[in-house]
Amino acid sequence: MKPLSRRLSSPKRHLPLKTPLQRAHRRDHTLSALWDLGCGGSPASAPARRQRSFSVRLGLAGVAIWAATWIWPAGVLAQDTPDYFRQNCMNCHTIGGGRLTGPDLKDVTQRKDRAWLVNFMVNPKAVIDSGDAYARKILEESRNVPMPTLPGLNKDRAERLLDLIEAESKLPESQFKGLQISQEPFTDADRQRGRAIFLGHVRLEAGGAACISCHTMHDTPALGGGRLGPDLTNVFERLKGRKSISAWLMAPGTETMLPIFKNHPIRAAEIHALTAYFEASASESPAEPAADRVTFLLTGLAGAVALVFGLDAIWKHRFHSVRRTLVDQASMRGRR
């Protein structure tokens, strides 16, 4: 075995170190030599020590991953449960404020056991499709508007939501009692502005998509509106009034609308105008999809015919001008 001074001062050890890996090897070698000097160890024991060091590091990494997986998310979930309820549940439910589209959740854990509630919250469609009597009753009382599958909702989060509901149910007045809906009477100006917002003539202040992108109404223009969502002509009657439809517009909860309006909420004044428009349309008949399709077809045919005749007119003049030049040149050669 070489003396420590020769091992540390060997020319071979002073070669330029170009990579982090080489520098790490140099560091391990130096530490190993110092350990041998202080503890009387042999060079043969260095690999074993490095192996033990690697095992310790691996164990610490495992503990850190476990803590990040089980301890940290629990705290985060506990903190964001009220925000989650506010963003995903308040459009259909209150806690002590009465029914909206869905039932009032005050003391819901006293009406049904937690296991059933968690199962229903995580996968409402499966419970309804299974024929469960209580789930069918909830669907009928909600005017056949099914509860959507909420984003990121698992059993653990559902349990925390139920804890939140139980705690809020014990308060004299819950923070989730419900939104303060304007009770001012609707005016003609409100209805006109609501129609303009629906058609996209007036943009939503927060930048959300216009209603006509996915929906239609009885008085939409000739080509109609979108077909991704339902016709909203009778939505005021379907959702049973001003309070429910206003709460729905505050935070639309369908799987299509939720990601669109989550970061672009509709303002209170815009909700007031849209609700006025929907109320005025409640007695009208929904738009006829076949008529919109016929209009679209006829418009397309008329445009195609106009395009053909226009191109024909342009080409005809071009042909005549080219032919006139050729005829004039031939006539001049004939005179010669």
Q: What can you tell me about this protein's structure?
A:
- This protein is mainly alpha-helical.
- It has 4 domains: 1-42; 75-169, Orthogonal Bundle (Cytochrome Bc1 Complex, Chain D, domain 2), CATH 1.10.760; 188-280, Cytochrome Bc1 Complex, Chain D, domain 2 (Orthogonal Bundle); 290-319.
- The protein has helices at residues 4-9, 20-39, 46-88, 108-111, 114-122, 124-129, 133-141, 155-169, 188-199, 235-238, 242-250, 257-261, 268-280, 289-335.
- Helix 3 packs across helix 8 (155-169) and helix 11 packs across helix 13 (268-280).
- The radius of gyration is 36 Å and the shape is extended.
- Residues 70-79 have low confidence and may be disordered.
Q: What is the CATH architecture descriptor of the largest domain?
A: Orthogonal Bundle
Largest sheet: none
Class from secondary-structure proportions? mainly alpha
Mean pLDDT: 78
CATH fold label of the largest domain: Cytochrome Bc1 Complex, Chain D, domain 2
| Total strand segments | 0
End-to-end Cα distance, whole Å, is: 115 Å
**Roughly what fraction of the amino acids lie in strands?**
under 5%
